[in-house]
Design brief:
alpha+beta, 8-stranded mixed β-sheet, 6-stranded mixed β-sheet, 18 helices
Length: 540
Amino acid sequence: MPQSPDDLDAVAVRTWCSLALEALGREREAIDAINVYPVADGDTGTNLYLTVESAAAAVEAVFAAHETGSTTPDPADAVRAMAHGALIGARGNSGTILAQLLRGMASVLSESGDAHHLRAALAEAAAAARLAVAHPVEGTVLTVATAAAEAAGATDGGARLKDVVEVAYEGARAALAATPGQLAVLGRAGVVDAGGQGLVTVLGALLEAVGGQARERAVLPAPDLLPLTGDCADADPDGGPAFEVIYLLEASDEAVARLRSRLDALGESLVVVGGDGLWNVHVHVDDAGAAVEAGVEAGRPYRIRITHFAADRGSAHREPVQRAVVVVVPGDGLSGLCAEAGATTVLARPGEPPASGELVDAIRRAHAREVVLLPNDAQLRHTAAAAAEQARTEGIRVALVPTRAAVQGIAALAVHEPGRTFDEDVVAMTSAAGATRYAELAVAERQSWTMAGICQAGDILGLIDGDVAVIGEDVPGTARTVLDRMLSAGGELVTLILGEDVPDALADELGAHVREGYLAVDTVVYRGGHQAAPLLIGVE
């Protein structure tokens, strides 16, 4: 058992994160199983685990930076790293709220980690979390956080740090046990709130880190019969929106205030956490594209994750659908497009391809027995293969369609048909992708030799099937030349995906060029949003 410190120092913060991650790892599946609110999608435990995993990694990075020195990190650096790590790694509704709780605590604990400041930190955390949620509901993790803060605040001024944490932990446990009487959906299912259970687990880890002992670490269901009380006793999330949208956002406070209003009108379960220019946005909507577009208007959204909820929301643990598609997309505009087609998306930021762990996480989020994985990047072949292999060890049947560009992924998704057998569907999607030639435009960064000759910095490069085939002076002229070369081998459909800074006039110009020169060829245009290439082209 860790020694009892008088202050929550950097080592104690590190221990807290480690113990919380370990505890959530043990209890993840049990917490997932009691997840019925706000959506019965069975992933609260997993989301909390991933959120704390990101927080713990950030704290470890602070310690790694001090390995060559003889001193431990400053406690303020440790708590700030914990909060920042949770913010950038927050998953789901409960994970996002936990990130705000940790951020609220860090704002006070960065000054001092003594018992007095811990009382204030718990109060600040509970208040900050409520402000982050558009429509707070009692009987949830917010109730549990408030109870912990109130219990800690009632301790006398002579209480030790461990005593304050223990009282807060017991207050949280008592509040958690009462949640089925405050929220009807919990009472009907006979379970406590999953997010609240996760917070109790995290507080139990804090108690252990400061030298105490948490009790009843296993997740326990609530009593079958509890009276319903409170203003929110009739809350029922059945039949809610189709998509969960999460993204990090770089934006000003003023822009985020406008974003809150817009997203609140679009959907529900809105939680916006963060500050100082960096935010984590979570919302459930029917129009995923509109939610992402709202983020684009507010600032710069990235790490966009869009999950399509299963149709059956009435059980405590969402039943896996038979088949799903997981697709990697290069821009936020395509995230909405693919999500509306029913796919689970992973955003590849320019220069930051997703790791295999992100792809495995997306496969799990799809909640399907069979998954088709579309990496849409030749360089992701080995990463995607590793993710598929890992998912197979978890009992998920995964087929990797080796798409090398987003336009191939769109072509494959267009012919996806869950009614076919898995093998037939994979063959059809693979065939559609293989029949799609792909190209992209890029700006040369320096003088270099290419397959098309020597280019200079600032030249527009036209890459066809991954190789430089055209060197041009401007985007429109290079795009026309690329299209002519691709269509010289035939084609029925041209797909254009425009980057965020490319005007619509370019699409009109290229569409007219295709109509005039290739009478039997149709053209479709999509907005790709923030992507590395100004223009992606596909020819089927």
